[in-house]
Structures are given as C-alpha cells and as structure tokens.
Amino acid sequence: MSSDFETLNKILDGRYSCRALHDKAVPIEDIHAIIQAAQKVPSWCNFQPWQVHLVRGDVRDTLSEKVMAAAMADEGVPDVPFPEKATGKHAERRRTCGLQLYQAVGVERGDRAGSRAQMLENYRFFGAPQAVVITTPKELGAYGVLDCGAFVTAFMMAAEAKGIATIAQASIAEMSDIVRETLGIPEDRDVLCAISFGYADAAHPANQFRTERAPLDEVLFVPES
Ligand SMILES: Cc1cc2nc3c(=O)[nH]c(=O)nc-3n(C[C@H](O)[C@H](O)[C@H](O)COP(=O)(O)O)c2cc1C
Fold first, then answer.
1. Residue 59: alpha-carbon gap to chain centroid
2. Atom 27, ligand 1: which residue's CA is nearest?
3. In terms of pTM, does the model score above 0.90?
4. CA geometry: angle 120, 121, 127, nearest 5 deg
5. CATH superfamily membership of 16-82+123-209
6. CA distance linking residue 37 with residue 154, whole number of Å
7. Measured between alpha carbons, how far apart are the two ends of the chain, in Å?
8. What pLDDT score does 225 carry?
9. Average pLDDT of the chain?
C-alpha cells in the first residue's frame, strides 16, 4: 500500500508543462472539482484572492485571435511586470529549459523563425479547447500574487490527479489589457497568468522532455547558531 507521501509525490512527478493538448473538452464537472480542490490552499487572512475566468468555445477562439495578433506585432504590457533580468543560475535554467523545448521539437540553434513559431503556440493555448485566467485584486499586492501562486499550483496538481494535463502561461498575461477587455475583468484586478489544460498529446515532440530540479544543497540553508 502506498503512503500519502508517495501518492503526493507521484502527482508532483507526473505533472509537467504540457505543450501539446488534444482538442477534447474537459467536462465542466471535472473543471468544478479541480477548482474546488485548489480553493483549499491557505491564503493571507483567508482572503482567497484568486478569481478564475474560464475561457472556452467562442470566447477562447476570440481571445486566441486577439492575443496572437498582439504577439505577432510584439505588443503587450503585463499588469504585473515580468522579471527585469535573470542572471547566474536563473539565466542558466531559463536557457536550459528553452533549449530542451527547441531540441524536442527540432528547432535548431539560431532558427529564429522556428523558435518564434513554437513560442506563438502559447497563443493557441497549445491546442487546448479550454483555459483559465487567474486574477488577483490589485490592492492585495505581492501577498495576493503569492496566494494565487499557491492556487495555480494546486489547480495543476488537482488536474494531474484527474489525468488532466496543464501548463501555466505568463505569456497570456503579457496582454493584460486584451485579456481584461475580452473577459470583462474589472480594472481593480491584475491578470496573473493563464492555465491551459486538457488531455495531453503524450506522443507530441513538445511533450518529450522533463525539466530538472536543483539539488537540496542549493535550496536548503541552515544557519549555524
Ligand atoms: C507562473 C508560470 C508562468 C509560466 N508561463 C509560461 C509560458 O508563458 N509559456 C510556457 O511555455 N511555459 C510557461 N511556464 C512553464 C515553465 O516554463 C515550467 O513550469 C518550467 O520550465 C518547469 O517545467 P515543468 O513545468 O515542466 O516542470 C510557466 C510556469 C509558471 C509557474
């Protein structure tokens, strides 16, 4: 019999950012169950700051068209600024996961058109027929964002436990104004990210790699007394 810890680790091990999804809708009951499970995460004073905007059908197609057009025109300003710079191991890890993806899909180093085409898949929601957009109240600042991060992770784990693949996408939040206008999101909320989700096209080249994690001694620091 497996322990709860083993079960939890199995779900954590099974999840990966899925960049090719089948065009098959997830039943609304499953979407409700995933959201209700994710809502169980803790938050500052139990604020539960997240709101989940479900995008499917015509709304999904319209949003996809609009954010694709903006991406192709290199337009877009995220509500929450993207990191200004990444140096050292962060730069290295970003480079590595990008290389892994491009290698998996057969984009050669220096093939700008190829890497751009792969990047634009973000705006097709990687083929998923549905996605959610997560927003936080502006007034709650960084701790609202932190709580929503916990929600995003729990959403992805709950989905994984149901055999549903996911990918979090800041790329959609880069077009915050378009997302806000298309989905009717109030001005007092920040658009944080999307999560595309559905049934993995497990054999697709984009899904053939897994990212690595740092060893414990790069993460855990125990100050001596
Ligand atoms: C908040 C957040 C935003 C992300 N945005 C994107 C994105 O826009 N496009 C993308 O391809 N991956 C995106 N990712 C996926 C990360 O690249 C991925 O989680 C990371 O490389 C680790 O790989 P794994 O999820 O397969 O374990 C995002 C992940 C998070 C948590």
1. 19
2. 16
3. yes
4. 155
5. NADH Oxidase (3.40.109.10)
6. 7
7. 41
8. 87
9. 97
